[in-house]
């Protein structure tokens, strides 16, 4: 094993060098979803609502992939910082085996239970039927999606963000071209949208797998390492489950308020996810740099990265909020011509704009603590915020007919609670634990 890697100072240029390629990678998938939403939205309000429901189910696979990427980034980064690149790449090999296995399981479950899941989430029978058909095809992309997530994770850990950029960008550009062609000229409608999704995910996963094969010949599964990844990823899994419970509940309640409401909720939620993942680009740099700094036992560098990332996340979020406010009367029309959906979107927009600055700091500090391996704290904070803030307000919104304003008030309380907890943790010394492992 080599001596610990020298950690460059956390200058704005260094952070940007890792964050900007990560930004393209992070933005590619939600940007494609926005394009897909816009293409399908012009088919009518029922197809738009169907994609909202089906996309919410598929977000389970996206969530699982995010957990896999985040977990392998932290583990690989610590080993890379300690001077052991081979061990960092080995984390990627085992994460890829885990990704392939989980992806196949999720694909089978998605195809098998598409009908019941769509029926559970959709309040309208037409929406449920259309969503089930979309989901049966889209679920087949789960193995590729998770392989791509594992590949992103270990490459970020060794501070290589350029290869993921070209792989993800290429796959999603291909799919963005296919989607409108398959939906309209080919006449496949929603089926064309699902096929385009599967194409992007499968091509991306295959390219990441090829990159891993070129990096190392040690490709056998090593069950003890896979078990360690599962154990250490447990807290991220539980934390992610809390997120999924919140957003699944939000979509289910929005569906009960009518087709226009769930369509507007889909537009705003996808814009929220797009902004969140774009803001997370700096947090990805934080995961890599904090993990590597702590792997090299440089706690001063880790704290400096955390400070700079927090400031950058807040500034970027304010800029996003300003853009969102300026586009309040225009952006919903990009996705659908339905005036009833526009009216519902107007209810959501003030919440969307006001919450973005808080979200910028939250996502930045998430990245810092994930890079430090402090995921047990993240787990507990997310669960408490969900149980005490988001979920009660969502279901009260349904019970008392508060509409979309009630749903987004729940999201607001959830975000502010996490903001307070993460800020406190950041200012404490409890997350600064040095060494190649935690």
Automatic annotation (TrEMBL):
Keywords: Cell membrane, Membrane, Transmembrane, Transmembrane helix, Transport. Its main location: membrane. It comes from the Bacteria. The chain crosses the membrane at residues 43-70, 97-122, 134-154, 166-188, 194-213, 236-259, 271-297, 309-335, 347-365, 377-396, 402-421. One of its GO terms (molecular function) is xenobiotic transmembrane transporter activity. GO terms for cellular component: plasma membrane. It is found in: Cell membrane. The keyword Transport applies. It is a multi-pass membrane protein. PANTHER family: PROTEIN DETOXIFICATION 44, CHLOROPLASTIC (PTHR42893:SF46), PROTEIN DETOXIFICATION 44, CHLOROPLASTIC-RELATED (PTHR42893). Belongs to the multi antimicrobial extrusion (MATE) (TC 2.A.66.1) family. This is Multidrug transporter MatE. It comes from Actinoplanes utahensis.
């Amino acid at each position: 094993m080599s001596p610990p890697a020298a950690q460059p100072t956390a200058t704005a240029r260094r952070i940007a060098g890792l964050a900007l390629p990560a930004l393209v990678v992070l933005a590619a998938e939600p940007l494609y979803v926005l394009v897909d939403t816009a293409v399908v939205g012009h088919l009518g309000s029922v197809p738009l609502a169907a994609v909202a429901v089906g996309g919410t189910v598929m977000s389970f696979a996206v969530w699982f992939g995010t957990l896999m990427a985040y977990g392998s980034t932290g583990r690989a980064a610590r080993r890379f910082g300690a001077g052991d690149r081979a061990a960092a790449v080995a984390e990627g090999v085992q994460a890829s085996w885990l990704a392939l296995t989980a992806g196949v399981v999720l694909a089978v479950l998605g195809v098998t239970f598409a009908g019941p899941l769509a029926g559970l989430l959709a309040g309208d029978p037409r929406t449920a039927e259309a969503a089930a058909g979309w989901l049966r095809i889209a679920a087949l992309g789960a193995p590729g999606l998770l392989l791509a997530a594992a590949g992103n994770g270990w490459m970020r850990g060794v501070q290589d963000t350029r290869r993921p950029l070209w792989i993800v960008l290429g796959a999603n550009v291909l799919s963005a071209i296919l989607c409108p062609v398959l939906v309209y000229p080919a006449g496949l409608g929603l089926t064309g949208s699902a096929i385009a999704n599967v194409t992007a995910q499968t091509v991306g996963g295959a390219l990441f797998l090829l990159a891993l094969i070129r990096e190392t010949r040690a490709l056998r599964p090593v069950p003890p390492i896979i078990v360690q990844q599962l154990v250490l990823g447990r807290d991220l899994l539980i934390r992610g489950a809390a997120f999924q419970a919140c957003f699944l509940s939000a979509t289910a309640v929005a569906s009960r308020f009518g087709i226009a409401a769930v369509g507007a909720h889909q537009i705003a939620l996808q814009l929220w996810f797009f902004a969140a993942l774009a803001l997370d680009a700096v947090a990805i740099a934080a995961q890599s740099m904090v993990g590597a700094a702590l792997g090299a036992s440089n706690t001063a560098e880790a704290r400096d990265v955390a400070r700079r990332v927090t400031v950058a996340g807040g500034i970027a979020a304010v800029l996003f909020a300003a853009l969102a406010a300026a586009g309040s009367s225009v952006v919903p029309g990009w996705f659908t011509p339905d005036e009833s959906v526009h009216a519902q979107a107007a209810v959501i927009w003030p919440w969307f704009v006001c919450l973005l600055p808080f979200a910028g700091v939250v996502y930045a500090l998430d990245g810092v603590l994930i890079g430090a391996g402090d995921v047990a704290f993240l787990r507990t904070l997310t669960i408490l915020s969900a149980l005490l803030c988001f979920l009660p307000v969502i279901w009260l919104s349904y019970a008392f007919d508060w509409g979309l304003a009630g749903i987004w008030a729940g999201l607001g309380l959830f975000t502010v609670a996490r903001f307070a907890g993460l800020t406190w943790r950041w200012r404490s010394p409890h997350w600064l634990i040095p060494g190649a492992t935690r």
